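Margin note: ligand = NAP.
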Amino acid sequence: MSVETMQAIRVHAYGGPEQLALAQIPCPQPQAGELLIRVHAAGILPMDCYVRQGRMAAMMPKSFPYIPGTAFAGVIEALGTDVTTFQKGQAICGRSPQGTYAEYTTVLADASAPAPDSVSYRQAAAISPLALMPATLSFDEAATLSGGATTAWTALFEDGGLQAGQRVLVHAAAGGVGAFAVQFAKWKGAQVIATASAANLDFVRSLGAETVIDYAATRFEEVARDLDLVLDTIGGATLRRSMQVVKRGGTLVSVLEPPSAALAQELGIRAIKNAVLPTSAHLQSIIRLIDMGHARPTIRRIFALDQAAQAHALCETGHGRGRIVLHIAG
Ligand SMILES: NC(=O)c1ccc[n+]([C@@H]2O[C@H](COP(=O)([O-])OP(=O)(O)OC[C@H]3O[C@@H](n4cnc5c(N)ncnc54)[C@H](OP(=O)(O)O)[C@@H]3O)[C@@H](O)[C@H]2O)c1
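Resulting structure:
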């Protein structure tokens, strides 16, 4: 028997967190090639807030009402026709472009990523890396992987080409991306320098960073120089200052904005906006690492589905440790 209605958060107009409204709406039905997922948990990404605020409207226009969220963990409730890669009842996690602040979402079972040189925001928005749930994580924890672990992985290893023995600076190392980046870089055998606020210094050290800089008390340039790689998740002045601490021939990857090509040339460094989109293979590599004990997610706070507005308000502060999660079922 198919489920007819579901609870979901919907946004009817760009604006503040108050635009996130709970509704009882028809449950989506899986089309050919799609999975119907019973969502157990959804990760709250800063991008979800930017989209709701209308900041992404030019690049990723939304038709209203829409269901926010992309990161999820849940169980396959039903299969559309032509699905051969997954089975009903399997627990999976990853990304759904159809909205995940809902009891159900649908996702293409096999949406492969476009080539890095052709990436646009629209293409990035359409991808759906998926993987079977990690054996060692709860649904709430697994909902933190898409947009956090996947971004850290592709930015460090695909865009950044990080190698063992190299020195890397990870900004915002207590955040949803940074906390994974520190652990992945450490696993790779890199020497990790990181920035965080005073409250998070010990936490970031516990993730494997050798040096953690309190960004409010110390200019990071005083401690971090001649780096092989910088991962920037802050942008603006932090991005420009970060370019100065990369050694000649080194790399800066910003997940926020394209760095100045002129400054990069002047400094003799490679500086790029991250461009490699996460695939299911990346997510599966991350999950293997997690299940081997090399990395763990950090949950900042768990909210119920009907508390999505409070969750967004907290996310918008731009501070805190780990990822905010909506616990939806189970
Ligand atoms: N392009 C992409 O593919 C992509 C993917 C994912 C994320 N992003 C972007 O990357 C950014 C970070 O994402 P996130 O998920 O990690 O965010 P998040 O979980 O909200 O974390 C933000 C972190 O930033 C830290 N922070 C704030 N100001 C800082 C500063 N001046 N220096 C160092 N750290 C600072 C905070 O640490 P304290 O609490 O210690 O201050 C907090 O831990 C967001 O803007 C997001 O949209 C881009």
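Residues 45-47, 147-148, 151, 171-172, 174-178, 195-197, 200, 215, 233-234, 238, 255-256, 274, 318-320, 323 surround NAP (CB under 6 Å).
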